[in-house]
Structures are given as C-alpha cells and as structure tokens.
Amino acid sequence: MLKPRAALRNMKEYHPPLSGRSGLRLDFNENTVGCSPRVLAVVRETTAEMLTIYPERDSVEGLVAQHLSKKETPFSPAQVLLTNGVDEAIHLICETYLEPEDEVVIAVPTFAMYEIYALATGAKIKNIQANEDFSIPADRLLAAVTPQTKLIAIATPNNPTGAMVSRADLLKIARACPHAALLVDEAYIHFGGEPVLHDVHTVPNLFVVRTFSKVYGLANLRIGVLAGSLENMAYVRKVSSPYNINGIALRCLPAALDDKQYVANYIAGIVAERDRLEQALKRLQMPYWHSHANFILMYIGGQHKEFVQEMRKRGILVRDRSADSGCLGCVRITVGNAAQMDRALTALEEALAAIQWSAQPRAALTEAGR
C-alpha cells in the first residue's frame, strides 16, 4: 500500500476558514480598502495572448531590488527572490536548510506555516512560548538553541499578537547562532516595528521575507519577496520553480510599487484607526495587546465562540485565535478604514451586550494560560 513519508503522517494541519466568508472581512488581516487603481488598470489591459506566455520575472525582481534598496545598502537582483506569497518563501528556506532530525526553534504563538513546512522535512520543532505580554523571550529562545538547530523563525510584528521584536534582539539571535538560518517575517512591518531587511548585507545567516498582500492589497495574486545574502540566495534559488509567480502578478506589481502615495495614505489611515480601536477597547474595559500590525488581539474569555458568532450575525467577521498557544479566549480583529471601523465598533458593542460580557482585568487572564 502506498504511504506518505513518515514525517507527514502525523503532521498537524492548518485549516483556515477558506469559505463562507460573507460580510466585512476583518478576520484575515487583508487590505480592506483595495489595491491601487493603477493595478486595476493593468489587469484590464491584460490580453488573451499574454495569458499564453510563460511568465518572466527577472525584470520585476530587478525592480523590486531597486525598490528595497537604500543608497548605502543597495540590493542586487540576485539577492531577492519573488515567491508565491510568504508561504512559499518559508517552504523554500525549509527545503534549502533542513535535514530530517534537524531542530527548528519557533517563538509561539505565531504563523502556523513555519512549523508545518519544517515538520514536512522531518525536522524536530522546539516551540518557545512568548512572555505574558506576548513579547519574544530572546534569552530563553537562545537557551533552546543547540548545534542541531538549523532554523529559527520569528515574525515581527507577530501574528496573531501584533508584538514586535527589537532589531537589537534579532541581530543578537542571528549572531549568536551562525550555524542556523534566522528567518524574519516582516509581513506587517509597514504598520510598525524595527526592520532588519538591510541587515542581510552584514549578517550572513539572516533571511527576511515580506509580502505584497497587506499594504499593497495583492493577496489574491500571491506574491512575496525573500531577501538574503548573495551566497545563500543562490542555494535557495536551486529549489525554487522558475515559474512560481504568475504573469498577472508580475505585470501588476510594478504598478503597485509605483503608487507610493496610495500606499502611504492607506498605512496612515490604518494606523489611525488602530489607535481608535485601542481607545474603544479601553473604554469598554476589554483586555487587549497593543499592536504594531493591522490587527488587534483582544481577550474575550470563555465566551469567545459566542462573540465571534454574534459579530457574524451583524455582518462582521473576526478570527477566534483560541487554538493558538497561550491564546485561549482571544479573538483577533483586522483594522479597516474609518467607515468600516464605525460598523465594526457598533457591532462589537452590540455583540458584547448580546453575550452579556463583563469586563475582566488583564491581571486575571488565567484562562488564557499565562
């Protein structure tokens, strides 16, 4: 009988709710405003003939390298690899550096795909629980590293918590573990935090991944970018498909990058609405964790499922994160524009009233496992 590899047979699965998402989608941290009108113009100009041609990404990678460059730290096209979203970038790093029985250190709670792609290689996982405020315990993480550790994965700002890791701590971890790849996921870096993207020029084992799904509003096109040193990226390219990015995405990305004012306006609007949401949660005495991303994690407690359902009844989708390590009773809400947050805040208060929720002090978050 045909059997899959042993590493896959007992591997956990990631099951995000991929269907039935009708309503205001504040559950997946998507851009709720939309991409630049310039991108839509490119889509409309796409011809049938264009769809028959294999995609060519070299010129677009050159443009992305230029976009990411600073005068003092320019990127060459060979240092950046366009990927099918952040997910593929994680997969490629795991395929490049992990052997069966190698160790992977992951700060949790965080994005599930780090663990899933690592487990698929047969590697062993060491999950390091975040502190009570969801900050990353850098010293405790380093204490878990052994000579068998080949990959450390950290997201900053982190999902689902919104917590950031300081550049100093990230560089400390990378330099203390030269035998391991440090993958820093900066998917939400445009909303806050301390980037380490340009440190790949001086820290050989550092990789940084970013996405064009969030601030650029291109989640449906599935496009991200992985950056690292010239030597290391040459190895990663060996396991990458030459046609991993579809041609529509490659045609649209330059237009998205070119509309800098549109992106800047979107970021400013989300940051302002994130602040407004935090103020509303304070007024409602709802425990939450300050976020550097485009979402906020809040603590509902034992009524988290009922709250999510009551929000759905009112046309607002939010994400129950109780299954994440240390997040029992927690719900995450994406930040939208002003009009969307007006709707969300009204629904939030109505949903809390419907479940007869009562405020609990943050110090009493024993149910959350801290």
Compact overview of the structure:
By secondary structure, the protein is of the alpha/beta class.
Explained architecture:
With 370 residues, the protein is an alpha/beta fold. It is 36% helix and 15% strand. The protein folds into 2 domains: 19-31 and 261-368, Aspartate Aminotransferase, domain 1 (Alpha-Beta Complex), CATH 3.90.1150.10; 37-258, Aspartate Aminotransferase, domain 2 (3-Layer(aba) Sandwich), CATH 3.40.640. It has 12 helices and 13 strands. The strands form 3 sheets. Strands 2-8-7-6-5-3-4 form a 7-stranded mixed beta sheet, with helices on both faces. Strands 9-10-13-12 form a 4-stranded antiparallel beta sheet, with helices on one face. Strands 1-11 form a two-stranded parallel sheet. α3 (58-68) packs parallel to α9, α4 runs parallel beside α5 (113-120) and α4 packs across α8 (230-238). The chain starts with 5 loop residues before the first helix and ends in a 16-residue tail after the last helix.
Q: Detail the poorly predicted runs.
A: 363-370
Distance between the termini: 45 Å
* Helix/sheet category: alpha/beta
Strand content: 15-25%
Number of helices: 12
- Major β-sheet, in short? 7 strands, mixed
User: What is the β-strand count?
Assistant: 13
Using the alpha-carbon principal axes, give the shape: globular
What is the average per-residue confidence, as pLDDT, rounded to a whole number? 94
User: Any idea what the CATH architecture of the largest domain is?
Assistant: 3-Layer(aba) Sandwich
> In the CATH hierarchy, what is the superfamily of the largest domain?
Type I PLP-dependent aspartate aminotransferase-like (Major domain)
CATH topology grouping of the largest domain: Aspartate Aminotransferase, domain 2
Helix content: 25-40%
- What top-tier CATH class of the largest domain fits best? Alpha Beta
